[in-house]
Amino acid sequence: MYDFEGLSLEQQLSLRHFQMQVAKMTREQAQDFLVKLYAEMLIRENLYKDILKHKWGLEEG
After folding, report:
1. Average pLDDT, the chain
2. Which one of 3, 30, 54, 55 has the minimum C-beta count within 10 Å?
3. pTM (two decimals)
4. pLDDT range class, residue 49, cuts 50, 70, 90
5. In the prediction, which pLDDT does 53 show?
6. What string of DSSP letters covers 1-61?
7. pLDDT at 56
8. Residue 28 pLDDT
9. What is d(CA 42, CA 48) in angstroms, rounded to the nearest whole number?
10. Is residue 39 predicted with pLDDT exceeding 70?
11. Nearest to residue 30, comparing CAs of 43, 19, 14, 16?
12. How far is CA 22 from CA 13, 32, 35, 61, in A?
C-alpha cells in the first residue's frame, strides 16, 4: 500500500474508498478517468495561479 502520512484520518478513509472504486474499474475506464483527473488538476493549478496573481497584485492590465 501507499504511505500518506500528511493526510487526516478523514482523508485517509476517503482515499481508501477511492482506491476501492478504482479497483473495480476496467483498464479503459481507469485510463479515461486519469485523463479527466489530470485535466481537472491543470484547471485547479490555473485557478490557484490566478488567485495568487490577484492577491499579490500581479495581474496584467
Report:
1. 92
2. 3
3. 0.70
4. very high
5. 93
6. ----TTS-HHHHHHHHHHHHHHHTS-HHHHHHHHHHHHHHHHHHHHHHHHHHHHHTT----
7. 92
8. 98
9. 10
10. yes
11. 19
12. 14, 12, 14, 44
Q: Are the C-beta atoms of 41 and 48 separated by less than 8 Å?
A: no
Contacts of 4 (CB under 8 A, 6+ apart): 11, 12, 15
Amino acid identity of residue 50, one-letter, is D
- The C-alpha cell 488538476 sits at 41
Tell me what pLDDT residue 61 has. Answer: 62
Whole-number Å distance between alpha carbons of 52 and 54: 5
Dihedral sign (CA 4, 6, 10, 14): negative
Q: Which residue has the cell 474508498?
A: 17
